[in-house]
Fold this protein.
Amino acid sequence: MLRGVVLDGDEARIVLRLRGCHGATEEVEAVIDTGFTDEMTAESAMIDRLDLTYRHLGRYVLADGRVATARIYQGEILWNAEWREVTVVQTESDCLVGMRLLRGHRLTIDVIDGGDITVEALPSAS
């Protein structure tokens, strides 16, 4: 089970560990974004520090309807006490956790300042 906290009543954040292709790891504080359909995003500087593996360019439709292109990388995160491959979209903003990473899990958020966040695997998804 993963845990996090709600900041300022409107930002749900969890802490993850991201690992690059040469074994370097870094702690990542990521915002849960249910409107983001991919797995996660990370800033260019973090991607460079961890030397994540470049895969391809991807196209995304943003909330305002614009289409953007972004570089897609491969890394690993520590998820439910196990390392798992993750697709990382390069951005220049906060790290995000999207719906594809949360698939098969129950997300519970107490939406108040300091509220608890839990992400737990559903029994049928194990």
Summary: Strands lie at 2-7, 11-19, 25-32, 40-43, 53-61, 67-79, 82-91, 95-97, 105-109, 116-121. The two ends are 13 Å apart (CA to CA).
